[in-house]
Design a protein that fits this description.
binds adenosine-5'-triphosphate, Rossmann fold, two-stranded parallel ribbon, mainly alpha, Helicase, Ruva Protein, domain 3, 496 residues, five-stranded parallel β-sheet
Length: 496
């Protein structure tokens, strides 16, 4: 049997002009590439971001063909450790090529939002280094920008690819059907295009799937094929919000690959957008009624969790689906772009922030000989305040060995600003040379009040440990007249 991807591969665009539905992003991509032809562009790398199957990878390939650049691709199936990235992309980004006429090679890194898995450990930092050093254009491809570290994003031009509109998919599908000698009855292509929900690869795959063994496709063939497909969550949510029939909405949820625990988040996220129309109050009675059902469904979900009695999922499912269907007083038209549950996104962000907060606390704690808990609760905020003072900020970053993401977090910002970057860069200069680090320390010391006898003297401050990277900042011995059983002298802020 032919592989279902075949047509999608066969009709992959060979030039940027063939990429459908992304006029602006393609223009941006071309401009960026022309920047490389002219010399060094403002950004050495771009991130092509957007949902699956809309042509991000194809655009990168077509760009290489249009500009006659050799293509080096590093996708997620390769073991993307920092080592591999530096080896493959690093050397590719330095060497000029003999095979490409232009002498350039385009480095494409797929799934750049997925660099934190085990095998990608250190990958993000490796890419940052490669981008900084590169003399060759680099394209990163990602579904979700949240998965990319702010420091990496700051080095890249971001180009957004949106879902492709049905009206752009229809003529492209018709062209494929014509080339494949498949006759399509009235409404067939339109139906396939609609079902794809903006994902052109799915549309091509669906067309190929119904065309297998046929020279003619009619609308009935589509409905049968459609029933075989798992309904996507967007379609199911749409059925719940726009339908009147409780049974068909409920049945649609059975084919979903989501549990009621997940589905309730989808409904919760999108209900307020769907149940208010133009000129209506923000909170309509439809929304209030629907949430009453949803909260009852949530109580059943809670019981399932507590008692592990999964039979109660049925009640939760019926309440959230049927309740939402019957709560609407009218069906509101208009296009609503459904969002994935923001709660999930927030949870992910909170988790990564928490990890980073702990890393910072560990560094501050190591510097002060204090526990991580004490450091997190008492000391980190003091160090954050120090970072606001231009005079000390650089030294603090160098001494603690903060990486740039930690610095951004300590500055309380979400974005990497120019000033933060400058502080970080200056700290990198300071770190390898101990004497200049000490300079900063002595300045700091001048301002310090009278020391207590058990505090460390400045003379005991050792050179900065340049090898230690993110982990240890200060090496060497600390002398003190500590008696046995006495608490280890605590380093203080003045002991930088
Ligand atoms: N905008 C488009 N124009 C022309 N063909 C497209 C377009 N988008 C997708 N395709 C078709 O779908 C196939 C898959 O596209 P591509 O690999 O570029 O998607 P993607 O956005 O990179 O998806 P993913 O994020 O899953 O990698 C291509 O081989 C091509 O046939």
């Amino acid at each position: 049997m032919t592989v279902s991807m075949e047509w999608a591969e066969k009709y992959r665009p060979k030039t940027l002009a063939d990429v459908i539905g992304h006029k602006k992003p393609i223009e941006q991509l071309r401009d960026w590439a022309e920047g490389w032809v002219r010399g060094a562009p403002e950004f050495k790398a771009v991130i092509l971001q957007g949902p699956a199957g809309v042509g991000k990878t194809s655009s990168a390939h077509a760009l290489a063909l249009d500009f006659e650049w050799e293509l080096i691709e590093l996708n997620a199936s390769d073991q993307r450790t920092a080592n591999v990235i530096e080896k493959v992309a690093g050397s590719a980004s330095q060497m000029r090529t003999l095979t490409s006429l232009s002498g350039k090679r385009l480095i494409v890194l797929d799934e750049a939002d997925n660099l934190h898995g085990n095998s990608d450990r250190g990958g993000s930092r490796a890419i940052i280094n490669v981008i900084k050093e590169t003399s060759q254009p680099i394209v990163l491809i990602a579904n979700d920008l949240y998965g990319i570290s702010p420091s990496l994003r700051a080095l890249c031009l971001e180009i957004k690819f949106s879902s492709i509109q049905t009206r752009s998919i229809i003529p492209a599908l018709k062209e494929i059907a014509r080339k494949e000698d498949v006759m399509c009855g009235i409404g067939v292509i339109e139906k396939i295009a609609e079902n794809a929900g903006g994902d052109f690869r799915s549309a091509v795959n669906d067309l190929q799937a119904v065309a297998v063994g046929r020279t003619e496709i009619n609308i009935e063939d589509i409905s049968t094929a459609e029933r075989d497909n798992k309904e996507s969550v967007f379609k199911v949510v749409g059925k719940i919000f726009k339908g009147r029939n409780v049974r068909s909405a409920l049945e649609a949820t059975y084919s979903l690959d989501e549990t009621p625990e997940d589905l309730i988040h989808w409904i919760d996220e999108n209900l307020p957008y769907q149940y208010t129309g133009k000129g209506e109050e923000k909170i309509t009675t439809d929304i209030v009624d629907a949430y009453a059902y949803i909260s009852r469904a949530d109580r059943f979900l809670g019981r399932v969790r507590r008692r592990q009695n999964y039979r109660m999922w049925r009640y939760a499912g019926l309440l959230m689906t049927g309740g939402t269907v019957v709560s609407k007083s009218k069906i509101r038209g208009g296009f609503v772009k459904y969002q994935s549950p923001s709660l999930w996104r927030r949870m992910g962000q909170i988790r990564s922030k928490r990890n980073m907060r702990d890393n910072i606390a560990a560094k501050v704690g190591a510097h002060c000989n204090e526990s991580m808990k004490y450091s997190r609760m008492e000391l980190t905020s003091i160090y954050s305040t120090l970072l606001d003072d231009g005079e000390y900020a650089v030294g603090v970053v160098a001494t603690l060995g903060l990486n740039i993401d930690e610095l951004v977090q300590m500055k309380g910002g979400k974005k990497l600003t120019k000033k933060i970057q400058e502080t970080y860069d200056a700290a990198q200069q300071l770190r390898p040379e101990a004497p200049s680090g000490i300079d900063f320390l002595s300045k700091f010391q001048e301002k310090a009040p009278q020391k207590r006898p058990d505090q460390l003297s400045l003379d005991s401050i050792p050179a900065l440990d340049t090898q230690a990277g993110d982990k240890t900042m200060v090496s060497g011995k600390v002398t003190s007249d500590k008696k046995p059983g006495q608490r280890k002298p605590q380093k203080t802020l003045f002991d930088f």
